[in-house]
Amino acid sequence: MTSHLRPTRHFTPRSTWMNDPNGLVHVDGLWHLFFQTNPEGVDWGNMSWGHATSPDLLTWTEHDVALRFSEHEAVFSGSVVVDHDNTSGLGEGDAPPLVALYTSHYKPTSPRAGTQAQSLAWSTDGGMTWRRFAGNPVLCRQSADFRDPKVFRHATGWVMVAVEADHRQVVLYRSGDLLAWEHLSTFGPLGATEGVWECPDLFELPVEGGPGTAWVLVVSLGAGGPAGGSGTQYFVGDFDGTTFTPLPGDTGRWLDVGPDHYAAVSFDNTGERRVMIGWASNWAYAHRTPTPTWRSSMSLAREVSLRRSREGRPVLHQHPVLPEDLLQQRLVVPAGGRTTLTLTTEDGRDPLVLTVDAGQDRITLDRSRCGDVTFSPDFPTLVEAPLPGHAGAVDVLVVVDASVVEVYALDGALTLTAQVFPAAPLTTAQVRDD
Ligand code: FRU
């Protein structure tokens, strides 16, 4: 039985495969999560957009598949925007249309076989049903690896970031109507480039304590992540409407130092707030995780902000939207001290061991004895990361939800997400200070 492995507050698909979050959008008080799914099984394939909604980012209801694969096209990752001014002309009545830009991955039977291009679909019923645009694709570069469009509203119009995955590049486009796109600029390669670049995002945030704002470019990496396999990096810099320029010396940071946080992108239409969700798995072993009736989970929703590090660089801080009913452990590791948190099943089995060393500035998560670890040789059992610079004591928040563990340290300056597959729920916590 694996039902105890199904998280309650992290979204999981009922009975299918899942990877990236897609089309995150907040509309009329409802949070929409679309996601890469295989409507016909628990393995990757037949890629389509699944759909779930939540009033509070904690309780999710799964709906019918929103965009289904077709004879010629798999529906890869993309985004949704609320077209408030009906720039696309696709609206009906007073309500603005929702417009999705997604990647058409053309199958061998298609005249476009071997290429990926960006297509459009729209909804006039608040995101429940979608129509494909007859003029698809709306943006084609004759490229085999051009994908994952993320669109946002900017003073200059609509801006799209997408990837040339193999080239490790983010490509930027602009449009007035979401239909016709012109190339603006190209970013990268820079920072981590071992794996293909996927699922970019670009947004502006105030720098807390000032001055001004900065832009954050997020890009996921298919391999070479911080704990092996896939991971997500980000750059901080400026976007002038055409070009993203990282701050001098910025060669990227990890968004999350754990093994299980990928393809994280932010919601559209959230006003001043910036809320992200990532896929809580890793391409190195996602297809083998031991939950045979569904595959994988999303991360908790995280509100992100920019603050200056001790060296004066703006860095992201992440704060989870937190449920009351999950096991939450808050620790303060004293300056120079070391604290070990051991989580086990009620009868003391399957230990998961988190060590936070404020003297050595290291955090480790040992999942080697926590239940099933043998399903893949690529499932790392010891995760280790440096703690970013701090003044002394280290605050740590640990959230456990069945098979997903999220660690937030230093007020969210460091996050570590990891899957675990214990034989029974990890309900018992023991803390030791050395
Ligand atoms: C990232 C990714 C995307 C692609 C999708 C296909 O995990 O490879 O680049 O659009 O998954 O499922």
Automatic annotation (TrEMBL):
Pfam families cross-referenced by the UniProt entry: Glyco_hydro_32C, Glyco_hydro_32N
The Glycosyl hydrolase family 32 C-terminal domain, residue ranges: 346-431
SMART domains in the record: Glyco_32 (SM00640)
Start and end residues of each Glycosyl hydrolase family 32 N-terminal domain: 10-318
Keywords: Glycosidase, Hydrolase
InterPro entries xref list: ConA-like_dom_sf, Glyco_hydro_32, Glyco_hydro_32_AS, Glyco_hydro_32_C, Glyco_hydro_32_N, Glyco_hydro_beta-prop_sf
Keyword Hydrolase: yes
Similarity comment: family membership: Belongs to the glycosyl hydrolase 32 family.
Name of the protein described by the UniProt record: Beta-fructosidase levanase/invertase
